[in-house]
Amino acid sequence: MSRATQYRTKQKAEIVTYLKSLPGIKITVNDIVKHFASCGITIGTATIYRHLEQMVANETVKKYFVDGVSGACFEYIGEDMENHEKRFYLKCEQCGKLVRFQCQELEHLQNHLLNDHGFSINSAKTVFYGICNKCSAKQ
Prior knowledge:
Elements: H1 3-20, E1 25-26, H2 29-38, H3 45-57, E2 61-64, E3 73-76, H4 81-84, E4 88-92, E5 98-101, H5 104-117, E6 127-130, H6 133-138
Parallel strand pairs: 4-6
Antiparallel strand pairs: 1-5, 2-3, 4-5
Helix pairs in contact: 1-3
């Protein structure tokens, strides 16, 4: 294995470890760059994009476009694709944090809309906007 291959593998491992540390949270490439910069780890933006796109292709990372304004968000899902499709999202209108959550009440609503109204909700694109606890506490 060449030194360049080892370096890329180490970088990918760093990215995966970071993504795994944020279960249910979507982050942007800029968030990842800032994290590694704050840790003194140099990983280029293009390298991060390349590794994320490989993980998206391997279905271990999910790529989202939450709205038409924000850039892509990424979330590590590992082998959890089946349960992942049953989750909804909360987005803080102040800090922009995006959190994935699962709620039986919303699943009941989803089933009701399908069974009684013939309408299927795409939970992966369903986002509830509001203010997170952290931002609420600042007010």
